[in-house]
Automatic annotation (TrEMBL):
Keywords assigned: Kinase, Phosphoprotein, Transferase
InterPro entries to which the protein is assigned, alphabetical: BphY/WalK/GraS-like, GAF, GAF-like_dom_sf, HATPase_C_sf, HATPase_dom, His_kinase_dom, HisK_dim/P_dom, HisK_dim/P_sf
Native species: Geomonas propionica
UniProt enzyme class: transferase
EC number: 2.7.13.3
Pfam entry (one): GAF
Listed name of the protein: histidine kinase
SMART domains associated with the record: GAF, HATPase_c, HisKA
Reactions catalysed according to its record: ATP + protein L-histidine = ADP + protein N-phospho-L-histidine
Signal peptide limits: none
Length: 694
């Protein structure tokens, strides 16, 4: 990916030596103003995990030269990292090496720890000579002062190990038209090496003196031997002193590095343990309050943050509500609970609300930086609580913000760092998962309880409706029986006396009177026929069934034969499939076939040629005709008693035939349905158990 001026390229450890140098030799310089001009912060310099962009570095060097008046201060700062006064993270890192030569041999592995702007390589060109090449990454445009600072670092690498200043040539520079920056470094032997060489020479002189003592002039050899011995002893003592000094310095550096490493290992262990414990909380807790309380305890115990607060979105989703905190006194906790963070409204919105909306973590190194964007009352409260710096990270789950986690540590020297931000940013989503799981479990419990109550209510209503329906059905059956029996006698009296009146006095009545009597008699007969059908409909439910194999093909042929006798002149085409066997009650099946085939015969009477078919396909029996048909949107009315889809003057009937068919088939374990189109006929399907069903 191409590098831009705002891409983080330079580690904060590079600039630690600058601030140490200014503090030591330029105390009048306002470092806060310098950092503010460069867009840097003090806590970012102190954080070894922070990186700065080229734009920030250019502004830093520009202001640095201006306030110090020294154009060569960048090289001086590079050298200063070797000073014992510096004691910065860069010096501590370099002291962990065996010697300066080893640093340059591993420059390609060391450089990425401090800069991402370039690639460094080295090659040995002589006994004490190394050539370094710095090639810049695509899009990087450093400034010449960074080149001077790099040379200062090279010199510091030798000063750290008590070497003299090396000789550094810069034959090719990118700022002088070169493609890369090339450096040739030569150095003289160290003092320890020179003492060791002198010790070896004196040892040779001592051997020569001993030989002269044995084979030549004894008086002259004795003097030479004495001088050689003194030189040998002197150089030996001096070399041992320097070796011990170098060894002590190395051991001190190794001890310091080891202590820092142990602290880092312990810190990493605590962080890993914190994540593990939070994972256990998620897997073993289900209540939200219990989860939040346990998470707060882990953050306080394992990560050592002095205080922390956890805000979650309220159910109405319009305000952040405090759901947990740690490290506060009861009085301070009560004051913190009084802070409200509405998500909607006019500015200022505050850091926590901004963090929630942007879903980006925030590290505030100095709360004075946020005075302008904070609610005044809230800012006064956190200032009174002693908050100097804090971190807030959004609690996310599946891309949705659920709340904000914020921590601070008023007792920590130097404030919170980028590494703390990275840690909290990694823990916040784990907390988000636990919060979401707890919310889902709570919703499931609530829905389950609601479903249980609704199910119980529904069962009660069903039982009540079933009871009411059974009672209404019983009353309806009673009504059918009453109507069928109790009305039959007075009905016969009515149309019976009508017949007597017509027979005895018909000759004396005029035509209109005789027509009225004929209508009375005809209506009475139809009413009696309807009562008979109602009685049949009522008796279907209580009829005793005798299930046996029945040949419906033969039954259909017999019914249609009887129908043809009623209208022998009609042109009829019949299609009856042979061998249709079902299991059912023969008496009820006779009623089914008589009604279905009778309807087919009746509703196709107006056609020039009646076509009726009966058969079975895939276990489903059917009766099809080419009669009047019906609209499918009215199909639901077909099997309702007394519901008729056609004009009664054209197609007479009582409206109980299909409802009786439905009831008869249900009694035998079957069902019926119909399909039709107006003017194109209808087909009624019904199912019954096959003939071999026991």
């Amino acid at each position: 990916m191409p590098t831009t001026p705002d891409t983080p390229l330079y580690n904060s450890r590079i600039f630690d030596s600058y601030l140490k140098l200014l503090q030591s030799r330029y105390p009048h310089v306002d470092t806060q103003a310098l950092l503010a001009y460069a867009g840097m912060k003090q806590h970012e310099i102190a954080d070894p995990g922070h990186w700065f962009s080229q734009r920030q570095v250019d502004r830093f060097h520009e202001k640095l030269v201006q306030v110090t008046g020294d154009p060569g201060i960048s090289r001086e700062a590079g050298r200063y990292c070797a000073s014992p006064d510096a004691l910065g993270p860069l010096r501590s890192f370099l002291l962990g090496m065996v010697g300066p030569e080893y640093i340059f041999y591993l420059i390609n592995k060391i450089a990425p720890r401090f800069t991402r702007s370039s690639r460094c390589s080295s090659r040995k060109t002589g006994p004490r000579e190394i050539e370094l090449t710095v090639a810049f990454n695509e899009g990087v445009q450093e400034n010449p002062r960074q080149c001077d600072n790099r040379i200062g670092f090279f010199e510091a690498a030798f000063l750290l190990f008590d070497h003299d200043f090396p000789e550094i040539e810069h034959p090719e520079c990118i700022f002088r038209g070169g493609e890369v920056c090339r450096y040739v470094i030569r150095w003289r032997p160290s003092a320890t090496y020179r003492l060791l060489l002198a010790q070896r020479i004196s040892s040779l002189l001592l051997v020569a003196g001993l030989s002269a003592e044995l084979f030549y002039n004894r008086s002259l050899a004795g003097s030479a031997l004495f001088i050689a011995l003194l030189c040998y002893l002197g150089f030996t003592l001096m070399s041992r002193h320097f070796e011990r000094k170098a060894l002590l310095s190395s051991l001190t550096s190794m001890r310091s590095s080891s202590e820092r490493l142990l602290c880092q290992v312990q810190e990493n262990f605590d962080r890993a343990l914190a994540v593990n414990e939070i994972g256990q909380i998620i897997s073993t807790r289900t209540e939200l309050e219990e989860i939040l309380s346990s998470v707060n305890q882990v953050l306080h115990k394992r990560l050592g943050y002095g205080r922390g607060i956890l805000y979650l979105l309220d159910p109405q989703r319009n305000v952040l509500v405090l759901r947990g905190c740690f490290g506060f006194t009861p009085e301070d906790e009560e004051r913190v609970r009084g802070i409200e963070f509405p998500l909607a409204g006019a500015a200022p919105r505050g850091v926590l609300v901004t963090c929630f909306h942007t879903q980006q973590p925030v590290l505030v190194g100095d709360i004075e930086e946020i005075r302008g964007q904070a609610v005044p009352e809230n800012f006064d409260l956190i200032s009174a609580l002693g908050v100097r710096s804090f971190i807030c990270a959004p609690i996310l789950c599946e891309g949705e913000a659920l709340g904000v986690l914020a921590v601070d540590d008023a007792t920590r020297e130097g404030g919170l760092l980028q590494s703390d931000l990275n840690l909290i940013q990694g823990i916040a989503p784990v907390v988000g998962i636990s919060v979401r799981n707890a919310m889902r479990l709570a919703n499931e419990r609530r829905l389950s309880d609601q479903l249980r109550r609704a199910s119980e209510h529904l069962e009660r209503r069903v039982a009540e409706r079933t009871s009411e329906l059974s009672q209404a059905y019983a009353e309806l059956e009673f009504l059918y029986d009453s109507v069928s029996h109790d009305l039959r006698t007075p009905l016969r009296v009515i149309y019976g006396y009508g017949e007597l009146l017509l027979d005895g006095y018909g000759a004396t009545l005029d035509a209109s009177a005789r027509e009225y009597l004929a209508s009375i008699i005809s209506g009475g007969e139809r009413m009696e026929a309807t009562l008979d059908r109602m009685l049949d409909y009522s008796e279907v439910k209580s009829a005793q069934l005798s299930l046996e194999p029945v040949n419906l093909s033969a039954m259909a042929r017999r019914v249609l034969t009887d129908l043809r006798i009623t209208d022998p002149t009609r042109e009829v085409t019949l299609e009856i499939e042979e061998g249709v066997l079902v299991t059912g009650d023969e008496r009820l099946l006779a009623g089914v076939m008589e009604n279905l085939l009778g309807n087919a015969w009746k509703y196709s009477a107006l056609k020039s040629c009646t076509r009726i078919a009966f058969g079975q396909k895939d276990g489903v029996c059917y009766v099809r005709d080419n009669g009047e048909g019906f609209e499918m949107r009215h199909a639901g009315k077909l099997f309702i008693p007394f519901q008729k889809l056609h004009d009664g003057s054209r197609f007479p009937g009582h409206g109980l035939g299909l409802s009786m068919v439905c009831r008869m088939l249900e009694r035998m374990g079957g069902k019926v349905w119909g399909e039709g189109r107006p003017g194109e006929g209808a087909t009624f399907y019904f199912t019954l158990p096959p003939a071999d069903t026991p």
